[in-house]
Amino acid sequence: MKNNISITFFFLIFINMGSLWSQKKYTVSGTLTDGTNGETMIGAAVLIKEKKGVGTTCNPQGFYSLTLSEGSYTLQIQFIGYQQIEKQIVLDKNIVLDFKLNPNSIAMKEFEVTDKKDNDNLTKTEIGVEKLDMKEIEKIPVIFGEKDILKTIQLLPGVKSAGEGNSGFFVRGGSADQNLILLDEAPVYNASHLLGFFSTFNSDALKDVTIIKGNSPAQYGGRLSSVLDVKMKEGNNQKYNVAGGLGLISSRLSVEGPIQKDKSSFIISGRRTYADVFLQATDEFAGNKLYFYDLNLKANYKINDKNRIFVSGYFGKDVLGFGDNFGINWGNKTATLRWNSILSARLFSNTSLIYSNYDFNIKINSGGADFNINSNIKDWNLKQEFSYFINEKNTLKFGFNSIHHTITPSRFEGELVTQDKKESRSSLENALFINNTSKINEKLTLDYGLRLSAFSLLGGDTYNIYEKGILKDSVVLENGELGKTYYNLEPRFQFSYLINDKNSLKGGYARNTQHLHLLSNSNTGAPSDQWIGNSYNIKPEISDQISLGYFRNFKENKYQFSTEIYYKDLQNQVDYKNGADINSAPDVESELLFGKGRAYGAEFLIKKTQGKFTGWIGYTLSRTERKIEGINNNDWYVARQDRTHDLSVVAMYELTKRWSISGLFVYNTGNAATFPSGKYSLEDKTLFYYTERNGYRMPAYHRMDFGATYTKPHKKKYESSWNFSLYNVYGRENAYTITFENDPNDPSRTRALQTSLFRWVPSVTYNFKF
Amino acid sequence: MKKIISIKLIILVLFTSFFLVSCEKEIEIDLNEGDTQIVIEGEITNEPGPYKVKISKTVNFNKGNNFPGVSNAIVTITDNLGNTEQLIEIENGIYQTSSLVGIQGNTYTLNISVEGKNYSAISKMPMQVNLDSLRFNEFSAPLGGGNSLTTVPMFKDPVEKGNNYRFFFSVNGEKNTGYIITNDNVNNGQENQRPIFDQELEVNMGDTVIVEMRCIDLNIYNYFYTLSQISGGGPGGGATPSNPPNNITGDKALGYFSAHTIQKRLQIATK
């Protein structure tokens, strides 16, 4: 009841803002697109030259709307890497103006072009937000020559790699499952291929990648640490393009083009590894399988000036097999059907129906008897979001999101298999959200919102209730029968204060909740890890994060400096008992432990964005700790991903018109690890004795990579380039694991053995486009 | 089953062997010196005695593998019928029964007093499940290695749930090293189908295979399950290591006390 009152109050505030200005006002609105390929712009600014500080940003679908008093104005359209457009308008009625922006390299005709000031980073309220430049990703050296967004974001402060060559990541001390990874709004439950050496994202098909480190606006929710919002290209609606690459590990091919020019377009992008094809020729490998593939598809159709629909899909699969005895495969499938509608000059609607599925399968043939181990998570997701451009100062976003989850835990199946039935569980995750961005004055911008999340058990199984690991009660819910519902109110608030043209101060607070939890019984994450929803024992994870940042630009915005500090408090964290059996235990919930966590740190980033020489230096000083009932004598301990120092240096230099080179250096404190404090003998084997969880450190990790790109002279439409890279230039043997064992050469002693991966991995990739 | 679940290991081994990118070396690590702990290893079986209880101590990692026995302990084993026997120290730290007879279904309590501390552990010997025979299945090992055989111990799991098993096997006299344990969480009450194998110890046609099957209680299952999880943690990283949960109460000690049945079978490997 109390909640209801505060919601009503909140809505009243929002509604009041809309009615404050009631003199004669008109709206200019429209859609911003890239003139070369028809892709909608994301986050481009529309400003009024005559009124400093008045303007708007287009929404992720490229729609902008500005409501102003009657009069004459000059519109300025700005976006990084694009030429600025200026356009005189006379606002004496509502007008619709669409703009096509052209990249800096293309000469302009229609509109006046001026230099644009790149100080968006100062004026936006967003804190802890980084956008990846897809063109930059191509230049940064990467292992096996596979350009990869998940590896590039790991070079940003506050984002840490899950391990050598791994696409898994940790944000501000959170665990890997606390990142919401969205591909065209569809959650991707396992974003890695093989052991994480490759991500599921094929960069060729991507348009925009944004990571929000915890202070997300209210339209996002469901994970504690971050939102990685990945948007696929829409497909060029002007001309056909074919692009591809041949690499050592995999090859890629994309085709995009108009179905009807200016009206509809498509893109198809595929990738497959082919190491196994060569390996079939060797005796050792013949008959075995090891590969993965990805397929991205998208098409859109402009019904009319006001309505547009999009269909996008992703299919990816990893396949691993040994003869007839044994096979594993896993993969994600996502599909998004989206409808954008301009309801009025000020109201924009985005409706999405999303399907997401992650499947893991093991097939075993043992003595003629087949059996399978399966687990699966399946979502149906409906999202409605309105952007309401109230006036020149306020932009409101509101809507709802409703997700139906079906989670099938790992279970054994086969003709000769019986097991206490492990049933699929259904649940419903609902959210209502509202968020307003308000320009109070030239200097101060506020962004505030509220998200109400509700997670309901929807039956299908018997839910056991445990107290300290002992079964106390059971609740049987038929499929579709409503069980416990968890409600959570998640306030979000951010501000930016522009001290002057060069300095700004930002801050924010956000509460996030998480209703799905990943159970992993290993250190680095595996495809077999399972998701589990809230239950009677598992409560929603909650995080509260406060951050404060100072942003400063130097030398006419050529250099951007920022520093942010954060403190994050985590509740209801899920872990499991020592030696928990999460695969065959009759009820995995009996194996779980619960506790809390905290994380804090300072992040520094200095970036050079213009000129022949570009790049950045990022540094993070941080700490992350957990306190779980039943682990480490119930005392606080540092989490595995705690790394005190984390440094990355990225540099790119355009040597000549044809050659560009790049280099990167990373250094971080080793992960926290549990090492033995003694040893003993049992059954004539040497075993190790452990005293504290994560009481030791792996050796520090550091590495340098080089890359070079040679762009061949264009032949008519045909463009091509060679990309060379060398991973781990000075051959550092970084510890991947450290194990302890009896010395095979001298059984009277024990030794510590370090395993390292990847010394000097050279690679070459040929990219083409026509 | 254990080996099959370790997918990460398989992928990693495959991957690194393809690209020849992994390397190992011995390193120096400065480890803290933990307090010395008492280690208890005691068992009673359905085979004729004497049964032994070993008491030793932990040593620091950097010391040699000499684990000192603990003498002058008072060690007794009591069954649920009230029979008690005090064990006699026959060697430094090794204590032995003289008349006690292990019987299936009985519950045994071990009590130890030494150096001013008291330790106690209870274990119930399960009823023996008969190991009927061994069957050999063809198996093509991951990473080539050609075709070999796996051994399936043939036994029928009882209808009642809660049976736990531990296996050892040897091939032409060479013993396996890992921990092989299983239970009836899957396939309760069925004829066993699950093979036992060891990547290091191949079985081929004509080999002499001896399988030892033990019926163990739940605590002992959990103990060895945890150990198997930790020791499976080579490349790719297993579970975070910990001391396995054990059945010793009173003062803190490492190790276990297990009452279990033992049955062995020898067979020549054939298809």
Structure notes:
The complex is a heterodimer of chains A (770) and B (271). In chain A, β21 and β22 form a beta hairpin. The radius of gyration of chain A is 27 Å and the shape is globular. Chain A folds into 3 domains: 2-116, Immunoglobulins (Immunoglobulin-like); 129-231, TonB-dependent receptor, plug domain (Ferric Hydroxamate Uptake Protein, Chain A, domain 1); 232-769, Maltoporin, Chain A (Beta Barrel), CATH 2.40.170.20. Chain A is built from 5 helices and 50 strands. Chain B folds into 2 domains: 38-124, Immunoglobulin-like, CATH 2.60.40.10; 127-245 and 260-268. Helix content of chain B is 11%, strand content 40%. In chain B, strands 2, 3, 6, 7, 12, 13, 14, 15 and 17 form a 9-stranded mixed beta sheet that branches. Chain B has a 5-stranded antiparallel beta sheet with strand order 5-4-8-9-16, with no helix packed on it. The radius of gyration of chain B is 21 Å and the shape is globular. Mean pLDDT of chain B is 83; it is low at 1-6 and 232-237.
Instruction: Give the strand content of chain A.
Output: over 45%
Query: Can you tell me the residue ranges of chain A where pLDDT is under 50 for at least 5 consecutive residues?
Result: 15-21, 106-116
- Tally of distinct domains of chain B: 2
> How many domain units of chain A?
3
Described by the principal axes of the CA atoms, the overall outline of chain A is globular
Looking at this structure, what is the CATH superfamily of the largest domain in chain A? Answer: TonB-dependent receptor, beta-barrel domain
What is the percent of helical residues of chain B? 10-25%
Counting H and I runs of at least 4 residues, what is the number of helices of chain A? 5
User: Which runs of chain B of at least 5 residues are low in confidence (pLDDT < 50)?
Assistant: 1-6, 232-237
- Mean pLDDT rating of chain A: 84
Q: What is the string of SSEs of chain B from the N terminus onward?
A: HHEEEEEEEEEEEEEEEHEE
Q: What summary fits the major beta sheet of chain A?
A: 22 strands, antiparallel, barrel
Number of strands of chain A: 50
Termini separation of chain A comes to 61 Å
Q: Give the termini distance of chain B in whole angstroms.
A: 21 Å
Strand content of chain B: 35-45%
* CATH top level class name of the largest domain in chain A: Mainly Beta
